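Our consortium's second objective concerns turning raw sequence data into structural hypotheses that experimental partners can test. To show how far this objective has progressed, the report includes one record in full. It was chosen at random from the queue rather than selected for favorable results. The single chain below, 393 residues long, was entered without modification.
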Amino acid sequence: MTQPRKICFITSTRAEYGLLQNIMKIAQDSPLVNSQVIVTGTHLSKDFGYTVNQIEKDGIHISKKIEMLLAGDNAVSTSKSMGMAQISFAEAIEELKPDIIVLLGDRYEILSAANAALIAGIPVAHIHGGEITEGAIDDSIRHAITKMAHLHFASTIEYKNRIIQMGENPEYVFHVGAPGLDHLNSLQLLNTKELSQSLNYSLDRPFAVVTYHPVTLPTGSNIVALNAMLSALDEFPEMQFLITYPNADTFGRQLIERLKEYCHDKDNILLTMSLGQLRYLSAIKNCAFVIGNSSSGIIEVPSLHKPTINIGDRQKGRVAAQSIVHCSEDKKSIVKAINYALSDDMKNIVRQVENPYKKDNASMEIFDIIMNNDLKKFMRKSFYDIDLEVKKP
């Protein structure tokens, strides 16, 4: 009898888990798979909501928990965290002996996992490669993971082509869409009343969802940019704002302290470590707009037909739907963008907007490709050269 294929998923943030959750469930329910899940990063940090509880609540069996976050908020602590992560991933891979590791995105701890898999000779499937985010070190990390991966699952045609441009064999590069969008048609989202009860906070006015992450390749100060956004929010006292914590990048804790200071005496603002997937998507469904610099605003929000105000360069370069309003990191630009997001013109746009990241059954397509490939045949990679016109001097 053929042994079940050992598929190991690694997740480090709430957003990452939301995009991987459906594939994890498909693998866990399959008799052909020995599903393994390693949880790390902010999932295990009380400072960021200890979201591992939500994974367990969702019925996902966790194989390993890897603690790797240091309390510091600078480049040195981030680099040390990466080193600790790689040591622990190496030990976990040796113990679990997976047939393939599934990674998503561009987090620095995910790069550590890719490094450990490469040295151990374990093939890697990478989801959401080929994307561009010019304002973050994530951009370089994502491309580095691509060069260590063997199966590539791109969310758009543009990203698929970019992966091939990076020298990856087209035979192993697939346009599947964003797997995190699969559950939007089946998940029973909360209405405003139910969301208010779940939050223990009355949403009795139009509200916005706010997520502002550190810009890790900044041209200016993260605090100055955050203050500009908060000052812009002050211009709309008739609204309420649900603000979620920034992620655990360098400078993240500085932003958290500033948010705590800003929110403590404002009754129209709820600051929360993490809304969790159901409440987060329910908030988007019922909000007036989403504002900040999170990838979710680009990838997920258009499918719920809400406008996104994308501030600054953190997501610069991503394919974006018509419902995305890009603006600079100054108060005047942000206020102008908010007014446009609330306009009748934008309401007409979001009603008919098409999400470029949407493709039906992405999770199942990824699972089928992993299951139907001989994992040994692509372990030795050759650089794939595309045809380029050579210009003579």
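The partners drew two points from this record. The chain has two domains: 5-177+361-371, 189-352. The chain has a mean pLDDT of 91. Both points have been shared with the crystallography group to help prioritize constructs.
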